[in-house]
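Render Alpha/beta hydrolase-fold protein in 3D.
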Amino acid sequence: MFIRSHAPISLLALTVRAVLALAILCPALAIAGPCMPLDALQPPHANTTDPTQPFYIDTSGLSGSGVMPIHDPHNPLYPPATDLPDATLPPLTKNGNYILGPTHTLPAEWNNTQPAQGRFIRLTLSSSPKSGYNPGIARDEAEPCATGVRNMSTSHAGDPSRLDVPGAHPAPWHRSVDIYIPPHTPTDHPLPFLIFGDAGDDGIYPGHDLFSLVDAHIKAHRIPPMVIIGVGSGGGDAQGSERGREYDTMSGDYADWVEAHILPLVEAKAHLHLSHNPDDRATMGFSSSGAAAFAMAWFRPTLYHRVLAYSPSLVNQQWPYNPALPGGGWQLHSPWAGTPQAIPPHPGAALIPASPRLPLRIWYEMGDQDLFYPVHPMPDGMHDWVLAGENLARVLAAKGYAYQFIISRNAQHVDGPTIDQTLPEALEWLWRPNPTPRHN
């Protein structure tokens, strides 16, 4: 759940609209304070004019039409991209940046699928000393007032990229884990698998039946026989929540938790063995779980080589704050916005440009109306989802990665029609052979 802002793009306009959703997004202080008027919530001294100064908010390429800001995919600051004819998808044999047309028709693969025929197992997990991530985290929500809001979280003094969340507190979590074994899947050898976050009945995957698509793709030899694993989030959203703690933290922690607590459980309950070959392991996610999909592969490349993500939150959502990576997911591709000239090994340096190329294969998508500044008190220059995707595409291309980046016209955050249009081909592209990386 994120704020979608109207245009024209001014910080004051964004602030007023952000206040309307503070009851969802802003944690409360432990002790109730006075009501603050709306004009007091305006972030002070936001930098929307000088790109040479810290925490610059880039509003170039944003249209003032429509319900939300619309990004121009041909913004000259973005890397070049190929416009595709409407209802056409990128070629399976190519890498690079592509722009989908505005009509997101349902491809034939969905019309030809049958109800999933495989074995489905649902498990329920709760926080405990043996489950990991114990205790969990939840946050108290803001209390609205007639003329403003009470108990709003704020940026750390002098650093708009660091959010103070005093309303966060220990809390239990509950989640489901879904296991799908397609029909005729052999169990006499370790199996490839795709694992995705935000699963379960409360998840945010808005597409058609993933399991039936996998059945059809395996039958047509478009992907190898594999197990599909869906892991529910720990609850809540963004900073101060268990979902945010797990998905937005830029480290190998979530991958380690999956390795220690989820995969052994899957093997035991489904009576099968999962492959340890990272080429046989794919991660997938949506919004913040898309960021987790990237983190699982980037920080644990010995475990995962394939990544598929829709509207991944490659922005500064990480919480608790980590001074070694002050820009969170933004720093996968771009320097921390507080130090425009960051040079390695400065903690504000971007990770991918400063590192040798990893043997990863990456497919991801952003909508042209994707999110822009959904967290009100953070005018930090690191909360534009489309800009994050474009910056990532630039550094992936420079390093020679196998990747496809899609910007979808007429598409919002985690856009259901775009997912339905692209997922059949994206899955096939994802599982193509991965070239051996050069070291640069």
